[in-house]
Design a protein that fits this description.
The complex is a heterodimer of chains A (about 120) and B (about 160).
Chain A (H helix, E strand, L loop, with lengths): L1 H23 L12 H39 L4 H35 L1
Chain B lengths: L1 H19 L3 H17 L10 H28 L3 H10 L12 H8 L2 H12 L4 H8 L3 H24 L1
Helix pairs in contact in B: 1-2, 1-3, 2-3, 5-8, 6-8, 7-8
The chains are: A mainly alpha (about 120), B mainly alpha (about 160).
């Protein structure tokens, strides 16, 4: 058994070595695009901007939800602490519901893939 | 400054990315992310040591972050209507066929679990020792050993399956 393992080990080393040799050939695969410092800096900046926009967008959605719930409550005479509590309760309920749907969806997907 | 390193190690690093990822598009993303990270953290590189092990470490960290990011994104991907979901299920078996090689090893490697593939690639392809893999990946020595063992067993099975096809 141990001998068999060692043989397989050797086979893997040889196969990976062959892969390396293949990759050394100039015709094999060229790296495209060829990055330079300026290109990388602009890419990093672009990614950072994208992240900020996503974060602000999520923040905007949450704030809109809060205001949509709490403003009418305050308007109809509910005290501020009550409005905050109800808003938090609604937010948590909605988030739990979304997570449950995500979870079930994911479960179905994994089950489907495994079948 | 960094151009010199890209010129020297770019090709080698790209091939490592290809081995770690299941398809070329993901490998390109990992390759780009690695160089961006290298540029950001270049001041922390100690020039007394070799560059390639350091860049491998950066690449492995990026790979793990991308894995987490993709796992999170897949949550949103699954939140779709039934029609899209069914087509996704139909196509999922073809997702990894964007291959550039038809070798049994390469195909078997793509079917291997991400964590096991990382250790296998670093050990057999990059020829790092178990200690070095533990350092590069930040995984415990015992875990590296067990992943290497499991990976080897699974790879053997997968390669046999590939050959039977």
């Amino acid at each position: 058994m141990k001998e068999k393992d060692e043989l397989f080990d050797q086979l893997l080393f040889t196969k990976f070595e062959n892969e390396k040799k293949k990759e050394m050939k100039p015709s094999f695969l060229k790296v495209e695009p060829h990055y330079n410092e300026r290109m990388l800096v602009s890419l990093a900046k672009e990614k950072r901007e994208k992240k900020t926009i996503t974060f602000l967008f999520i923040l905007l959605i949450i704030m809109t939800n809060i205001s949509m719930v709490s403003v009418p409550l305050i308007y109809f005479g509910v005290p501020i602490w009550g409005a905050i509590l109800i808003t938090l309760f609604i937010l948590v309920s909605v988030l739990s519901l979304i997570l449950t749907v995500y979870g079930l969806n994911k479960y179905y997907l994994i089950k489907g893939v495994n079948q | 400054m960094i151009e010199k390193y890209i010129q020297e190690y770019g090709q080698r690093l790209f091939h490592l990315c290809l081995k770690l990822e299941r398809n070329k598009a993901n490998a390109e993303e990992l390759y780009q992310e690695t160089w961006i990270r290298v540029l950001k953290n270049f001041s922390s590189y100690n020039a007394e040591y070799e560059f390639y092990p350091w860049v491998t470490m950066v690449c492995v960290n990026c790979y793990r972050n991308l894995m987490k990011k993709r796992a999170f994104e897949s949550l949103f991907l699954s939140f779709t209507d039934n029609e899209t979901k069914d087509s996704y299920l139909e196509n999922i078996s073809h997702l990894d066929t964007d291959s550039f090689e038809n070798d049994d090893l390469v195909n078997a490697l793509k079917k291997l679990d991400d964590k096991l593939r990382l250790v296998i690639v670093l050990f057999y392809y990059e020829r790092y020792t178990i200690d070095e893999i533990a350092k590069v990946t930040g995984i415990k020595l015992g875990t590296v050993k067990s992943r290497l063992y499991t990976g080897r067993m699974e790879l053997r099975g997968l390669m046999e399956n590939e050959r039977e096809r």
